[in-house]
Design goal:
3 helices, globular, alpha+beta, two-stranded antiparallel ribbon, 7-stranded antiparallel β-sheet
């Protein structure tokens, strides 16, 4: 199912998929393709600076929040999270924290690697459909800001292959 972006008129609120969408003029967290490219580039640059070359290097960073230089409310956060069948996945998420006095905040890019089940997933938010990515949940295809929730399944936890997939986001 491909979901088109919501249409708004000035002053209109629309309730769809259990979300109450704010006025389009109030939306602060629209992730455009250009913003997604910038986030993917920053994501990889931080991990390269941290000398990540393999899954074990990411494990070493688990539990850390690495600030994004020049972006006061942005972080790269690594942590173990519950996953399928009682396993855990190592998450590396680009997080934009809620800024006081503004709407906005969330995880526009999250890579989760499950070594027990030998797969990884890349979750992203973008106001446009990204080729090769499908809807994460057809019941809730949009976040409160109108971004499509999308993901891609990779049958690997090899960091080099995952890194290459994130690098492809820089070319969308």
């Amino acid at each position: 199912m491909i979901v088109s972006e919501p249409e708004f008129t000035k002053g209109e609120h629309r309730h769809e998929n259990r979300f109450l969408y704010p006025l389009i003029s109030e939306i602060k967290m629209i992730i455009t393709r250009d913003k997604l490219k910038e986030i993917a580039e920053t994501f990889l640059r931080i991990l390269e600076k941290e000398r990540v070359g393999a899954f074990s290097d990411i494990e070493r960073l688990a539990g850390q929040a690495i600030p994004v230089e020049g972006r006061e409310h942005d972080y790269l956060i690594t942590d173990w999270r519950p996953s399928n069948f009682g396993t855990r996945a190592l998450s590396v998420a680009y997080v934009i924290q809620h800024k006081p006095g503004e709407t906005g905040g969330g995880n526009p890019l999250d890579v989760r690697m499950n070594p027990s089940l030998a797969y990884s997933q890349i979750f992203l938010k973008c106001h446009e459909k990204i080729p090769g990515y499908g809807p994460f949940d057809i019941s809730f295809p949009l976040d409160p800001f109108g971004n499509l929730l999308q993901f891609k399944l990779l049958q690997t936890t090899d960091w080099k292959l995952i890194q290459e997939e994130v690098r492809r986001l820089q070319a969308v």
